[in-house]
């Protein structure tokens, strides 16, 4: 009887292992298909950028280009000034990320680590900024920028981008700071650190995962923003990539392959930023999940 039971147990274990293997294979197939679906738009855009209008509108929209036209990239860079627009977007986005991280982290430190009466009220007022739609602030901001002579400058974009990025950033930093033990502040104070040294030397280095998360969110919102950019900037030296690529649409003839090349160039920095900061973002998500 014992031998029969052991054999039946072995058969059951083998059956479970076999079902687990089948489940893993099905899961891998599903995840692979999902990854292909997510990556395909980028692949399609790259293939699209090597075609001309005849090939695009001639029925070969999704297939491989018959002729790989590198001239589309040359035209986008030399004639359409995509590199100039790329430089402008880098300047505006980098400045916005810097100001958002510094201002939001300092505000979150004051709200989450310091004790004062209006800390919760201040946090609520800042968080309410997430409910303000960008279109509602367009006209008032335009009037303010015009009165301050900031139109057609980088500051016309950096200031609004920073203001709209602060509510989300402060919320992320405050929630992350709550997971940091307050004993660190007390130990630093005993060692002779003042409030500014505690923020800069103790808290700020521990915020790296949250900083990466805020940086990616701010980058995406600033890099792809069009409404403010097209309203506040109409001079070529200050146009950002979304406005510059939109200006590539001709009045009578539009070279869609060159526009595709410009979009590919605009997409490369986004991919690079995500690859550089994805690990920190995952750490931030894991930390938030553990805390929750």
How far apart the termini lie comes to: 50 Å
Low-confidence stretches: 288-292
Strands, total number: 0
The biggest sheet amounts to: none
CATH superfamily of the largest domain: MetI-like
Strand content: under 5%
Structural shape? flat
Number of helices: 13
List keywords for this structure.
about 290 residues, mainly alpha, MetI-like fold, 2 domains, 13 helices, about 75% helix, flat, disordered C terminus
Overview of this structure, please?
With about 290 residues, the chain is mainly alpha-helical. The protein has two domains: about 1-50; about 80-290, MetI-like fold. Helix content is about 75%, strand content about 0%. The chain has helices at about 1-50, 55, 70-80, 80-115, 120-125, 140-145, 155-175, 185-190, 195-205, 210-225, 225-230, 240-245, 255-290. The longest helix has about 45 residues, at about 1-50. It is flat and about 70 Å long. The relative contact order is 0.14. Mean pLDDT is about 85; it is low at about 290.
